[in-house]
Amino acid sequence: MTTIDHDVQTETPFVPSFDTPSEEGRKLAIICSKGTLDMAYPGLILGNAALGEGIETHLFFTFWGFDMINKKTQSSLKATLLGNTAMHMPQGLGGIPGMTHLATSQLKKAIAELDIPEVPDFLDQIVASGGHLWACRLSADMNHLTEADLRDDVEGIISASDFIEMTAGAQLLFI
Amino acid sequence: MPSTTIAGRQINVNDEGFLVDPDDWTEELGAEFARLIGVEMTEDHWKLVNYLRQDYRAQGETPTLRRVSTQTGMPVKQLFTLFPGKPAKKMAYVAGVPKPKGCV
């Protein structure tokens, strides 16, 4: 019944293993705690990359990171020279009026040139890719914010223990 | 360099199984790549695959998911529906181009 020719034809082809068992059930949780433009991006880039690899991804916004999901502030995050020696400019310059605006527009330009979306669009893309956004209860209470102040795709304002519970077994990144 | 037989043709693939030379690609091969990774090709799938091949030829690199979405107008959500799990890599594989290098 089975000829030699047939055996050659049905030799198992070498195909990329897109769904390796070791990655099955991998989960990533990223805590976004910063509200500066430069520090908003690491979490967005890594979260987006994880989703592209088929990994369940949760972003938890806390403290200054709330500015990333607050409808009022998400489009106006800023970068500053102050306290950031990696900008390699004299720190005194950072206090001059207009310097924060300049640093922000320079960074925005560099990001746009790489075709990387602005923060609100990036979060849209993350949600469209299946990512989950969560807000921190304490930060909301401290700033007198409710769900109405946050992006509509934030799934909930949750406590620290809720977060710990729901990220059981997840890999964690604190940014 | 490993080689493998797919759709009755012996082709060179890299260590991950991606086609080495995009010029070896034919539609028949693409359809078989898709079948092997469990993707059933529809008109939308072909639209993406053809865009990937055309953009790769023009730019010399495989577009990232974001670029695919902005350039074809197909929402990111739909890309994940058409090529579930790892859309960027899966569509690159079917299109016979290298997996994308860009981060976003």
What can you see in these coordinates?
Chain B: This is tRNA 2-thiouridine synthesizing protein E. Chain B: GO terms for molecular function: sulfur carrier activity. Chain B: Keywords: Cytoplasm. The complex is a heterodimer of chains A (175) and B (104). Chain A has six helices and five strands. With 175 residues, chain A is of the alpha/beta class. Chain A has one domain: DsrEFH-like (Hypothetical Protein Ychn, Chain: A, 3-Layer(aba) Sandwich). Chain A has a five-stranded parallel beta sheet. The longest helix of chain A has 16 residues, at 37-52. Chain B has five helices and two strands. A two-stranded antiparallel sheet of chain B has the order 1-2. Chain B has one domain. Helices cover 49% and strands 8% of the residues of chain B. The longest helix of chain B is centred in the middle third of the chain and has 17 residues, at 43-59. Chain B is globular, with a radius of gyration of 13 Å. The chains are: A alpha/beta (175), B mainly alpha (104). At the A-B interface, helix 2 of A face strand 1, helix 3, helix 4 and helix 5 of B.
Question: What key phrases describe this protein's structure?
Answer:
heterodimer, A: alpha/beta, Hypothetical Protein Ychn, Chain: A, 5-stranded parallel sheet, 5 strands, disordered N terminus, B: about 100 residues, two-stranded antiparallel sheet, about 50% helix, globular
Secondary structure elements and pairings:
The complex is a heterodimer of chains A (175) and B (104).
Chain A: H1 4-9, E1 27-32, H2 37-52, E2 56-61, H3 99-113, H4 119-128, E3 132-136, H5 137-142, E4 154-158, H6 160-166, E5 171-174
Parallel strand pairs in A: 1-2, 1-5, 2-3, 3-4
Helix pairs in contact in A: 2-4
Chain B: E1 3-6, E2 9-12, H1 27-36, H2 43-59, H3 65-72, H4 76-82, H5 87-95
Antiparallel strand pairs in B: 1-2
Helix pairs in contact in B: 1-5, 2-5
